[in-house]
Design goal:
The complex is a heterodimer of chains A (317) and B (104). With 317 residues, chain A is an alpha+beta fold. Chain A contains eight helices and eleven strands. In chain A, strands 6-7-11-10 form a four-stranded mixed sheet. In chain A, α2 (18-32) runs antiparallel to α3. Chain B has one domain (19-102): Multidrug-efflux Transporter Regulator, Chain: A, Domain 2 (Orthogonal Bundle). With 104 residues, chain B is mainly alpha-helical. Chain B has helices spanning 22-29, 33-41, 60-75, 79-102; strands spanning 2-5, 12-14, 19-20, 57-58. Chain B is globular and about 45 Å long. Classes of the chains: A alpha+beta (317), B mainly alpha (104). Chain A binds chain B through residues 26, 29-30, 33-36, 38, 46, 50, 97-98, 130, 132-133, 135, 150, 167, 169-178, 180-182, 185-192, 203-204, 206, 208, 218, 220, 225, 227, 273-274, and chain B through 1-17, 28-30, 59, 62-63, 66-67, 70-71, 73-75, 85, 89, 92, 96-97, 100-101, 104. β4 (186-189) of chain A pairs antiparallel with β2 (12-14) of chain B.
């Protein structure tokens, strides 16, 4: 198993006071809280920081941890020396915050057993408790909302074994993504959460859907936006052109005198569902390069004949 | 240990049209009705209909309740603070969406 440098994780010195550790924890907990943070590794960092604090906030655990020595590096292969914890007593120990199964192997090995053992044994047989609800995010593609899809989802599930240990089990679940789903919506899988204790029913699994960024489309609620490059003459004179949509290409009529940024709405071509969204085509007028004599001549003709000044309203001549 | 389940279990889509009764919300969030009532008093949840068993909670209530509980548990935030955080988080999501739209 890998050594965890809890001081490095918390960003404090090895001789930091308990108050300094508490302040560092509060700051990091706010920064990486998975419901608040926008950082992609927020959840992992939050758990890591929680685990470090679990040890460093408790003087007994901290002393036991310090006694392992300072020669270890974060991530280094580590085996605890025999009787490493002799003489220490983890008062009120074990887990005080968050999910027990969220801790690293390192933590479980050093601080986990004393807690889980007796409690697990005492409660078996007499104690019934419904399993926990589990929450996870699932990334899908825009196209999956049109066709519906089945996604394999890997979950790490903490589990209490018969002898009271907590182990983490990898579980792969095949989940049907219903067509018409939108970003931020949730899927509920009844009975697929944590197992119940003492024969009670299991909890539910909630999956929050996010869409992967798409090279062409962006999604806003049920609506889809597509930036469509057009030539100046298509925008000025009008044209009928082929436009990609997630459900296949369609013919789109661009009205004459369309402008840069004009939005054309294709009703009902957004995400499907009980109330399908719309597809908005946003025109992006692109200029051909003046890289030939012919092109330069044409631009020169426009300059001479159109008398166009886009800065007329700016009060400069 | 690893296990793979090949058959897909039944799924239930929670979309904007989904609403919950008080009993459903309690069950789905694994909380007591008293807590939900407190969240309504704080304006964190906004059910429609008459108080109690006639209450009808919008789909977003699930997420708002969960985030409130997490902020309380993990950061020691009180309910007024959680209400503020939820509003600000929603605002950030809106702004993020707008930013994404213009920065492409």
């Amino acid at each position: 198993m890998e050594y965890r440098d809890y001081y490095q994780i918390m960003g404090v010195a090895r001789d930091a006071t308990q108050d300094e550790i508490k302040r560092a924890y509060r700051k990091l907990a706010r920064k990486y809280h998975p419901d608040v943070s926008k950082e992609s590794d927020a959840e992992a960092r939050f758990k890591e920081v929680g685990e470090a604090y679990e040890v460093l906030k408790d003087p007994e655990k901290r002393a036991a941890y310090d006694q392992l020595g300072r020669q270890w590096k974060n991530g280094q292969e580590f085996r605890p020396p025999p009787d490493w914890d002799a003489g220490f007593e983890f008062r009120g120990g074990g887990y005080t915050a968050g999910d027990a199964g969220a801790h690293s192997e390192f933590f479980e090995e050093l601080f986990g057993r004393g807690f889980a053992g007796p409690r697990g044994r005492q409660e078996r047989g007499t104690f019934r408790m419904r399993g926990e609800h589990h929450h996870a995010k699932v990334l899908i593609d825009l196209e999956d909302s049109f066709s519906g899809a089945t996604r394999s989802i890997s979950l790490r599930v903490p589990e209490l074994t018969d002898d009271g240990h907590i182990i983490t089990r990898d579980r792969t679940l095949s989940v049907r993504i219903p067509g018409g789903i939108r970003p931020g919506q949730q899927i509920r899988l009844a009975g697929q959460g944590g197992p119940g204790l003492g024969g009670a029913e299991p909890g539910d699994l909630y999956l929050e859907v996010e869409f992967r960024d798409h090279p062409l489309y962006r999604v806003d609620g049920a609506d889809i936006y597509l930036d469509l490059p057009v030539t100046p003459w298509e925008a000025a004179l009008g044209a009928s052109i082929k436009v990609p949509t997630p459900a296949g290409s369609v013919d789109l009529k661009i009205p004459a005198n369309s402008r840069q940024g004009s939005k054309l709405r294709l009703r009902g071509r957004g995400l499907p569902g009980r109330q399908p969204g719309d597809l908005y085509v946003v025109l992006q007028v692109t200029l051909p390069a003046a890289d030939s004599d012919a092109a330069r001549t044409l631009y020169k003709q426009m300059q001479d004949q159109l008398g166009y000044n886009p800065r007329a309203a700016m009060g400069v001549s | 240990m690893s296990e793979t389940e090949t058959s897909a279990p039944p799924v239930e889509l929670i979309d904007e049209q989904t609403t919950f009764t008080l009993a459903e919300l309690c069950r789905y969030c694994a909380v007591e009705a008293e807590l939900i009532e407190v969240l309504v008093e704080q304006g964190i949840l906004e059910p429609v209909g008459r108080h109690g068993s006639h209450w009808c909670f919008p789909a977003s209530s699930l997420r708002r309740t969960r985030i409130t509980l997490h902020l309380q548990r993990d950061l020691g935030v009180n309910l007024a603070g959680a209400a503020l955080a939820l509003d600000l988080l929603e605002r950030i999501d809106e702004l993020d969406a707008r930013l994404r739209a213009i920065s492409r």
